């Protein structure tokens, strides 16, 4: 009887060991794919948010994508005609990701400038919001925790077109 119990114990240990190895391999592959899609390094997610949140908001460049955390609102600025996220996107979203995983809702608002075709601009703003949504989902946020608002055109003449080409992520109260 005792040899049969030992065989069963060995099988259980073997199954747990194999499952752990498969989980580790799957996690490594998933992180690699996510890194390739977002261009962000997973190791930076741990250390950069406090620095990013404390830094003053830099001026937005007209030709480059950037990300800024301003009073708890993550603002993604996009290059003209582009929907690719700036490097450091996941770093800037770490607080929002934690809040969403803790049960809060995230609101994504897209904006666009007034130059060119308004319909095409609205579609591009929508694609930009989808890029941010995809980064959040890739980081483990449930889609049911996300609310996407209809893109808005910025008509304020005090801001620049570069300021208008953005997506904002806010934690809903």
Describe, in plain words, how this protein is organized in 3D.
- About 14% of the residues have low confidence.
- Helix 2 packs across helix 3.
- The chain has two domains: 38 residues; 133 residues, 2-Layer Sandwich (60s Ribosomal Protein L30, Chain: A).
- The protein has 173 residues and is an alpha/beta fold.
- Strands 1, 2, 3, 4, 5 and 6 form a six-stranded mixed beta sheet that branches.
- Helix content is 50%, strand content 16%.
Summarize the entry for a quick read.
With 173 residues, the chain is α/β, with parallel strands linked by helices.
Domains counted in the coordinates: how many?
2
Percentage of residues in helical conformation: 40-55%
Please give the largest β-sheet: 6 strands, mixed
As a percent range, the share of strand residues is: 15-25%
Q: What gyration radius follows from the Cα positions, in whole Å?
A: 21 Å
Q: Indicate the CATH architecture of the largest domain.
A: 2-Layer Sandwich
| Shape field | elongated
Distance between the termini: 60 Å
Number of extended strands: 6
CATH topology of the largest domain: 60s Ribosomal Protein L30, Chain: A
Mean pLDDT: 77
Spans of 5+ residues with little confidence (pLDDT < 50)?
A: 39-62
Task: Please give a handful of descriptors for the protein shown.
50% helix; 60s Ribosomal Protein L30, Chain: A; 6-stranded mixed beta sheet; 5 helices; 173 residues; alpha/beta; 2 domains
